[in-house]
Amino acid sequence: MTDMPDSSEEASESLAAGVESDGSRPALSDTEALADMSEVDDLQRKARNVVLWTTLGIVGLLIAAGLLIKVDYVTLVPGSARDTEPLVVVAGTDDFPSDGEILYTTVRVRQEPNVFEYILAKFDDDAEILPAQQVLGDLSPEENREVNLQLMSDSKAIAIAVALEQLGYDTITSDGVVVADVVPGTAADGILELGDTVLSVNGDPVPTALDLIAVLRTHSPGSTLTFEIQRWETNVIEEIDVVMGAREDDESAAFLGIGPQDRVSLLGELPLDVEIDSGSVGGPSAGLAFTLAILDQLTPGELTGDNDVAVTGTIAFDGRVGPVGGVVQKTAAVRELGLRYFIVPASLGEETLTAMRARAGDDLEIIPVDTLEDALAALRRIGGDVDAIDDYEIAQS
């Protein structure tokens, strides 16, 4: 009788020989299986590395593009509120430093922001995004900067003149109307540029903004008026015809569509000298703040009643307070400083004033004014010594 081999031994011998007992494909040894698994792992790792580095490369390119690509917009973000007293220097008479501060407000303007700055501004409630054309017009950023520095220079001259006139001095007069802003889509858009000066309309001189407004109100929308203009870039004087538009609040009145600012000229030397160091800040919006600061410096007592008061608004030769831009951003800057009062132009309109109050919160009071006299009355209400101005006038007369 022949012994039958043990089945387990047959299996072992067959596997050792690399042959399956049923004749199918040979099974791999443990070493060979591990080797194949290692190769698979290497391939997967290489694939993951390719995906990772490709992704990082794409992200890097997107970041670089976001930083380098500029968009044709201008963003306005909150700037600062700065004390005017250190900026006002008086010589030739006594001055009276104050405890309370009159602060002028600024907006940070980012011209041609990159993609990331644009996106961040979109999600910032205190920021405003405007088309570059609306802000710059046909000027380059550098030209716009030069114009705004000139507007600041003119604004300081007007502020000094208005303050000294308020105290009884004969100071300077205006000999034309400077274009401080051009409203998009109006008659002036594309015809007048920032810094141009309007000298006359249909042959009638317009030495002040008030004179220009008075002349325009005698004409109707659709009228063609001849403007004598001195160009900012060349100083060349030329005549241009402009078809008038209509005012939103009075469709029967002709509307040019500029922000007017008086161009001042000296009447003669003064017995005192007032200078304002505004540094690199441009634009005309600190006019009212500088006017109040000069009055505070030249009179005893506290014009603000020991309060710190923020102020914005242009000032005209006749004491009118004009609208300015970036007021929501300025409100945010004033709010962050914890101030209680912010004097602003009433001519901004109720919609803008409502937006400002929404950004101001409960602790900051927005005080709209139309004139210098309104601003002084507001300061009197919060405890300011406004009578010192009248006493100064009497003393000088």
What is the fold's blueprint, element by element?
Elements: H1 7-16, H2 30-68, E1 73-83, E2 88-91, E3 102-111, H3 115-122, E4 128-131, H4 132-136, H5 141-166, E5 172-182, E6 197-201, E7 204-205, H6 209-216, E8 224-230, E9 237-243, E10 245-246, E11 254-255, E12 258-266, E13 273-276, H7 287-298, E14 309-311, E15 314-315, E16 321-322, H8 327-336, E17 341-345, H9 350-360, E18 365-369, H10 372-381, H11 387-396
Parallel strand pairs: 3-14, 14-17, 17-18
Antiparallel strand pairs: 1-3, 1-4, 2-13, 5-6, 5-12, 6-7, 6-8, 8-9, 10-11, 15-16
Helix pairs in contact: 5-7, 8-9
Characteristics:
6-stranded antiparallel beta sheet, disordered N terminus, about 400 residues, alpha+beta
Commentary on this structure:
- This protein is of the alpha+beta class.
- The protein folds into 3 domains: 28-68; 71-169 and 271-397, Ribosomal Protein S5, domain 2, CATH 3.30.230; 172-266, PDZ domain (Pdz3 Domain).
- It is built from 11 helices and 18 strands.
- It has a 6-stranded mixed sheet, sandwiched between helices. Strands 5, 6, 7, 8, 9 and 12 form a 6-stranded antiparallel sheet that branches.
- A hairpin with a 6-residue loop joins strand 8 and strand 9 (237-243).
- Helix 5 packs parallel to helix 7 and helix 8 (327-336) packs parallel to helix 9.
- The chain is globular, with a radius of gyration of 36 Å.
- Mean pLDDT is 84; it is low at 1-21.
